[in-house]
Design brief:
Blueprint lengths: L4 E8 L2 E8 L9 E6 L4 H7 L1 E9 L2 H21 L5 H21 L8 E2 L1 E7 L2 E7 L3 E6 L2 E4 L6 H8 L29 E6 L6 E5 L1 H4 L4 H10 L2 H14 L6 E8 L2 H4 L23 H19 L3 H23 L20 E4 L4 H15 L11 H16 L3 H21 L14
Antiparallel strand pairs: 1-2, 2-12, 3-4, 4-5, 4-6, 6-7, 7-10, 8-9, 8-11, 9-13, 11-12
Helix pairs in contact: 2-3, 6-7, 7-13, 9-10, 11-12, 11-13, 12-13
């Protein structure tokens, strides 16, 4: 996706998605890329589901843009052809293949040396939703006003916070927030994190985004917008809000909504009754200590019987039986049927963050301040803005707040935001702006 701004909309069975990628207010090129690969037919749905992806390129202008494009071209193609293995394995191998492609391209060209990209993927399957990622682009799930971050940021701040058992807000301000510790491209190999699968139900919404969105906007505000607006409006509004708050980076939002699980091929069962194995099979399923105990008890039993110590041999036999039982339990509990592609195991430790995003006083205050400052621009710009409509939206929001209907207030304020930003896009001389809405 090399264009400064682009929109995508898809509908497939019981699933809808909407995406917007924007250059932002301070950059001259868009180094973000995205990809959507919908299953073609029931057989493909059953085996590999739907794939969604966002990548945020790093490097000089051409290098970062190429890296993210290589990622979004390679991962879907590679994932699509790996039909012989489970989806959780297929997506990891696909991301690793993309890493090799980017690394080789960078190694063979002086202009592209050191280029890289983040990579966040969401795979919607009959077993649930699976996330795979490298870098600090994120995957969220919204359910019933609970906004959950399903991915761990591979960034210096998050790694330091995890090592110190703190939150990223407690890391000293002098630590740069934009340094990532893992990406595709700079090295010949890469570790890929996998989370899930997470059971889905109608109404669930997933967000994949680059840090151009999560940098300016707090998760609570993102969740409030996402929970209040239709999918297309939510995708555009999040982009507009990030731009109004400075837009220092490229911004990409990819939203996925589960509308009808039946049409997805899923059984419409509550999350708590969907049973998934905790682990996949391992080759060495019995713990080494168990083998040691088993062998020791066997030798001890034989020695006591050979020397005529029949009374003591009874205890040794009991120990042998216990060790054998433990070995059988360990072996049978981690092998066999769980290796099927229909049982992927449970990966990761998500969610890593959880936020209450029900529209309320805080989100309304933030949006109200943004719209108020936008109205202050009237008469100080050459934009052809319908200020009366913006004022009308603001009045509707005030009335909704008076009646305690915060969701309607969010809808009204977001309508004003989209009006203004559309006017800016439609203006004759759209240029990168140095203006930022001040929420201090």
């Amino acid at each position: 996706m090399s264009s400064p701004s682009r929109k995508l909309e898809y509908t497939a069975g019981g699933l809808r998605c909407a995406a917007v990628s924007d250059v932002g207010m301070r950059r001259s090129s868009n180094q973000d890329s995205l990809a959507v690969l919908l299953a073609e037919g029931p057989a493909r749905w059953q085996s590999h589901g739907h794939l969604f992806m966002v990548a945020d390129g790093m490097g000089a202008h051409a290098a970062g843009e190429l890296a993210s494009k290589l990622a979004t071209d390679t991962v879907p193609h590679s994932y699509h052809k790996r039909t012989e293995i489970a989806p959780s394995q297929a997506i990891v191998e696909a991301v690793r293949e993309a890493n090799s492609v980017i690394y080789n391209k960078g190694s063979n060209s002086v202009d592209f040396q050191g280029m890289g990209t983040t990579c966040s993927c969401l795979v919607v399957l009959p077993q649930g939703a699976l996330a795979a990622h490298v870098g600090d682009s994120r995957v969220y799930r919204l359910r019933d006003y609970c906004f959950e971050q399903l991915t761990f940021d591979h960034s210096l701040v998050w790694e330091m916070a995890a090592a110190g058992h703190a939150t990223e807000d407690e890391i000293p301000a002098y630590v740069p927030k934009n340094v990532i510790t893992r990406s595709l491209g700079p090295h010949p190999t890469v570790a890929v994190d996998v989370e899930g699968p997470f059971a889905v139900k109608p109404g669930d919404r997933f967000l994949l985004c680059s840090d151009g969105l999560t940098g300016p906007l707090k998760p609570e505000l993102i969740g409030a917008v996402l929970s209040s607006l239709p999918l297309n409006d939510a995708a555009q509004t999040l982009i507009d809000l990030a731009n109004l708050l400075g837009g220092p980076d490229n911004i990409t939002t990819l939203l996925v909504e589960i509308a009808d699980t039946g049409k997805l091929g899923l059984e419409a069962a509550p999350e708590e009754v969907i049973e998934l194995p905790r682990r996949t099979a391992r080759n060495k399923s019995v713990h080494p200590a168990t083998w040691v105990a088993l062998v020791a008890c066997a030798f001890l039993t034989g020695g006591l019987l050979a020397t005529g110590h029949y009374a003591w041999s009874g205890f040794a036999v009991a120990g042998l039986l216990v060790a054998a039982g433990v070995a059988w339990t360990q072996h049978s509990g981690s092998s066999g049927s769980f290796t099927s592609s229909h049982y992927m195991g449970l990966h990761g430790r998500a969610p890593y963050r959880r936020y209450d995003c029900a529209p309320g006083a805080t989100s309304i205050s933030t949006l109200g301040d943004i719209v108020r400052q936008l109205e202050d621009l009237e008469g100080h710009s050459n934009w052809e803005v319908d200020w009366k409509s913006i004022q009308h939206d603001r009045e509707k929001a005030h009335e909704a707040v008076t009646h305690g209907n915060y969701q309607e207030a969010v809808i009204a304020y977001c309508g004003a935001v989209r009006r203004l930003m559309q006017a800016l896009r439609d203006s004759k001389n759209p240029k990168p702006s140095d203006s930022t809405v001040d929420l201090a």
